[in-house]
């Protein structure tokens, strides 16, 4: 494989759940896994990158993100805990405990707020720089499946095709002003309540870097692109399209779209499916930019680096082929170096 596309050495030993690059032009990469560890790599140090350290947890880890800088991280998973990790010392601190598995965790640098979303149908809002911090618990109408955010908004995708859009600044401010005994429940009305434009269960949601809207994907090989502006004109622009489908012996085989990630510079987005394919899309021009060669297993997670120069691709068996025992060594993270215009929209001049 060329140097512009290589496999990370020392990958996780079980399914990959999330990939996150550090902010800015850093090539540090966090990977969370069902093998009960979080991995920290320098993706560009040495041949095949360098595993800097791994951090053991009590149960499978479902999500991870960087905090205010590249020396701190936050993780969440099936132990129901939201943890802060000092990436230098390895010290872990439990910030809050949900009542079920924690599916997603995001850190907003603009508001210095950490938000976790759980299958217990709550959001926990943390203020890590405040000591002591009693997180606020915000009830949701359904199980949370995916979180994404912009500088001003938080999007929560849930079961029953429900979707909430919150004002991040209000969320942060109101949660910092409440101090009841645990569980410190706080009712906050979202800016907008929406029903997914997709007919089947939401798998992932990702916000546009220009703060204009978001994309969501489903288990039924479709992606929807929508805008935040509630006006009739703006809402008329929303659309959905079929993708990650293959024809086998005359039958249309439909795969889940497991991962979405927006390019931080060009505003295009990547999708990854159970078919092992990664595609780049121009959401405004409604065109596919390119599709990469098929990987050896289902795409589990995607992440662009902060400067948009690299795309990390996590692959894990999705059992779409009906085989229950994964092949040895199939859990991998690939790093793709992107050309200057490789992820540029076709509609851009």
Characterization of this structure:
- This protein is mainly beta and about 350 residues long.
- The protein has helices at about 170-175, 230-235; strands spanning about 5, 15-20, 30-35, 35-40, 50-55, 60-65, 70-75, 80-85, 90-95, 100-110, 115-120, 120-125, 135-140, 145-150, 155-160, 160-165, 190-195, 200-205, 215-220, 220-225, 240, 245-250, 250-255, 255-260, 270-275, 280, 285-290, 300-305, 310-315, 330-335.
- A four-stranded antiparallel beta sheet has the order 1-30-29-28, with no helix packed on it. The chain has a four-stranded antiparallel beta sheet with strand order 2-3-4-5, with no helix packed on it.
- A hairpin with a 5-residue loop joins β28 and β29.
- The protein is globular.
- The relative contact order is 0.12.
- The model has no long low-confidence stretch (mean pLDDT about 90).
Summarize the structure.
By secondary structure, this protein is mainly beta.
Classify the beta-strand content into a percent band: over 45%
Helix content: under 10%
Strand ordering within the main sheet: 1-30-29-28
Which structural class best describes the helix and strand composition? mainly beta
User: What is the makeup of the main sheet?
Assistant: 4 strands, antiparallel
What does the radius of gyration come to?
A: 19 Å
Shape category: globular
Counted by DSSP, the helix tally is: 2
Total count of strands: 30
Mean pLDDT: 92
Task: Provide the low-confidence segments as ranges.
Answer: none
The rounded distance between the terminal residues' Cα atoms is 32 Å
């Amino acid at each position: 494989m060329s140097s512009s596309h290589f496999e990370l050495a020392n990958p996780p030993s079980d399914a990959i759940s999330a990939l996150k690059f550090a902010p800015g032009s850093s090539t540090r990469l966090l990977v969370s896994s069902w093998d009960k560890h979080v991995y920290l790599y320098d993706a560009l140090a040495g041949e095949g990158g360098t595993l800097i350290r791994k951090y053991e947890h009590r149960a499978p880890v479902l999500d991870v993100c960087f905090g205010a800088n590249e020396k701190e991280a936050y993780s969440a998973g099936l132990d129901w805990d939201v943890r802060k990790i000092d990436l230098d010392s390895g010290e872990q601190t439990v910030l809050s405990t949900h009542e079920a598995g924690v599916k997603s965790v995001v850190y907003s640098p603009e508001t210095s707020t950490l938000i976790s979303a759980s299958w217990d149908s709550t959001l926990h809002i943390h203020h890590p720089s405040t000591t002591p911090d009693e997180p606020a618990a915000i009830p949701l109408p359904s199980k949370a499946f995916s979180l994404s955010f912009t500088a001003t908004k938080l999007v929560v995708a849930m079961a029953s095709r429900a979707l909430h859009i919150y004002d991040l600044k209000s969320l942060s401010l109101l949660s910092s002003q409440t101090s009841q005994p645990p569980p410190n429940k706080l009712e906050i009305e979202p800016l907008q309540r929406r029903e997914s434009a997709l007919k089947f269960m939401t798998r992932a949601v990702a916000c546009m870097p220009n703060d204009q809207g978001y994309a969501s994907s489903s288990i039924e090989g479709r992606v929807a692109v929508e805008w935040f502006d509630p006006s009739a004109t703006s809402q008329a622009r929303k659309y959905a399209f079929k993708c990650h489908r293959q024809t086998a012996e005359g039958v249309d085989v439909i795969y889940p779209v497991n991962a979405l990630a927006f390019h931080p510079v060009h505003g295009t987005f990547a999708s990854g499916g159970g078919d092992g394919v990664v595609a780049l899309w121009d959401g405004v021009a409604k065109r596919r930019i390119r599709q990469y060669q098929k990987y050896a297993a289902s795409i589990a997670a995607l992440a662009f680096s902060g400067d948009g120069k690299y795309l990390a691709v996590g692959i894990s068996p999705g059992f779409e082929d009906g085989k229950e025992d994964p092949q040895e060594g199939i859990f991998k993270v690939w790093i793709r170096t992107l050309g200057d215009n490789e992820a540029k929209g076709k509609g851009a001049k």
